[in-house]
Every structure is written in C-alpha cells, then in structure tokens.
Design goal:
Radius of gyration: 32 Å
Structural class: alpha+beta
Order of helices and strands: HEHEEHEHHH
Number of strands: 4
Strand content: 5-15%
Distance between the termini: 106 Å
Amino acid sequence: ECAYEARVHWIRTHMKPRSRTKVRQSEFKFLNRGGKRRGAGRKPKGKRAGVSHATRPKLSKHEPVLVTLRLVAGLPTLRMNDTHELIRHLCSEYHAPDAAFRVVEYSVQSNHVHVIVEANDQRALAAGMNSFASRLGKRLNKLWKRRGTVLADRYHSEPLRSPRQVRNALVYVLQNARKHGCWDARVPDFYSSGPDFDGWLETGAISDRRLAAPRTWLLRVGWRRHGLIAFHERPARAA
C-alpha cells in the first residue's frame, strides 16, 4: 500500500498533464460547381465583338428607344416578301395603347432589323425585347425550316432624349435601305413601316397603319419641330 501511494505521488510530481487544446474545424469553402468563374468563357473577337453587356442606362417612359437586332452569319436575307410580312405582323402584335411596351416604327435590312419602341421603364423594355426576339427567332426558324440560333447577340438600344435625336432616328430607321444603297425609289421603302408613316414631307404615302400610335411627346410631336422627312433623305450617320 505504501509502495502504491509512493508511485502515485511520483506520477503526479513528474508527469505533465495532457494539454487540452481545442481542435479547430477547418474552414469549409464552397466549390463553384456548375457555374462559371469570373472571366470564364470565350470572348468575342473581330470587328463585331458583340454588344456590350454593361448595365444599360435608366429609361424614362417619356423617351422612345432605337433598337437593333442582328442575325448570325449565313442566314437568308430578310428583305423578302415572306420574311417582311412575318416581321411586320410581329411588330403589329405590340400595338396595344395601354401596354408597357409598344413597337412604333421598324425597317428590315438583309441581316438586321431596326425598331423604334416605347416602354414604361427599363424593365418593360427588357421584357418586351426579349419577347420580341424570342418570337422572331422561332418564327424565322419555322419559315426557313431550320433549327439553331438566329440572333447574333443581345439587342442594342439607344434612348432618344431630344426632338433632334428622335428625328435622326426616324430617318435612320425608315431610310436605312437608302443608306445601304438598296432602295432609291421616290417612295418609302416597302420593307419598313414607311408606307404607314404620317410624317413625310410629300403627301399620299399613308396606308392603313397596323403598328402602335406613338404616345411619347418626342415621337408624336416634338421631332416635327425640326421639319418633316422627305422621301430622298438619307441618314447622316449611324444613330
């Protein structure tokens, strides 16, 4: 018994107690599975590197917008009677006067479409153009009996904030075929809303309008302060 007590005393005197350090759990890092890391993806190259994906400027309901949609390379020209009628009918579907998004004017070129639209705000513009682009792609694919991508990139938009800007945009859209050298007749371009436009300097160019009537002051009245548009006018520059 004395020997046992002596051994216990020796152990307590000479043995160091086990340290009670806490084991820290290593930090768990989430892995980016299924998504793209920042900067991933092939960057567009060439002269047409695509439309910028920067945040679009805020839009007021009082400002019309000039929008351009381009096709991927290798598709048939849009300046044909069947494709033009398809696009004209599509534009006429966005004509309700109380709608948040409306198509007011358009023109069809060989590989792109210009439209002048009105929207209540940026969200309405985005929703309206996404709907428009989706319907356009599906209907063209059906007409051409093909599958695959139709539009080259997301749409390009430019808010029109002054009467002069609106007039320039109207000339640019309605007379765009003259800019490209594929229309020189002394009448409005048949592959546009020109025959339905009521702002020509010459008379007798108005037919039954199927598109939305303009609601913004700039597109309805303001641009006329700089004069009506003549049949022979050409766009001074790219809007």
